[in-house]
Amino acid sequence: MFGTHSLELFAATVFVVNATPGVDFALTVTRTLQGGVRTGLAAAFGIAGGCVLHALAAAFGLAALLAASATAFAVLKWAGAAYLLWLAAGMLREAARPRHAGPPVAAQAPASAGRTFRDGLVTNVLNPKIAIFFLALLPQFIDAAAPSKTLAFLFLGAWFVVQGLAFLVALVLVVAPLRRWRPHDAWRSAFQATAAGLFGLLAARLALSERP
Question: Which residues on neighbouring strands pair with residue 142, listed in sequence order?
Fold first, then answer.
């Protein structure tokens, strides 16, 4: 279809990529636990929006710039790491905020869906490894004799976005019931601190990553 092949293998590869814990996985889980289904879905759709931009970049050759230019890769890499650290700092502030006995996690005011969508979009867009991944993966499933390589790129990119979004939506629905648990304030603070540490680790991993 559209000059592509081995779509079953492509679907399996995309599933493995989605199921491997990383920034997108962690952001979806943490936002779902913090704000419920609505907030988790906002993160998922933001991430999907970022994947749309990466797919378009790969299709029209912009991702090739990151593969060829060390400077472009470094700029995007450090910007992404800085944004992840900014998210981690916000989680640490939440962990340190004094709490009073009161509503359970599920009763607390959820984060703005718009802000959560933005977080998902920006963290995904500012990850150059995703752009390189698109550029490296998609050509493997495009026929050498495809009439339009751009159309084939767009088709596989759309497939990746739709399948990835479906996975994240399912993840939100699986994680959301955990909000019914009413932990002690110390547990909530510990969760925020752990999430902050995870995002700090992801920021460090991104900052230390090398251009393929």
Answer: 4
Residue numbers of the domain that contains 193: 7-208
Q: Which residues of 157-189 are buried (b: 16+ CB within 10 A; e: fewer)?
A: bebbbebbbebbbebbeebbeebeeeeeeeebb
Tally the residues of the chain. Answer: 212
**147: in domain:** yes
Residue 110's pLDDT band, with cuts at 50, 70 and 90, is low
How many Å separate Cα 75 from the centre of its chain? 19
- Highest-confidence range of 5-19, 68-82, 87-101, 120-134, by mean pLDDT? 5-19
Residue 107: is its pLDDT beyond 50?
no
pTM: 0.69
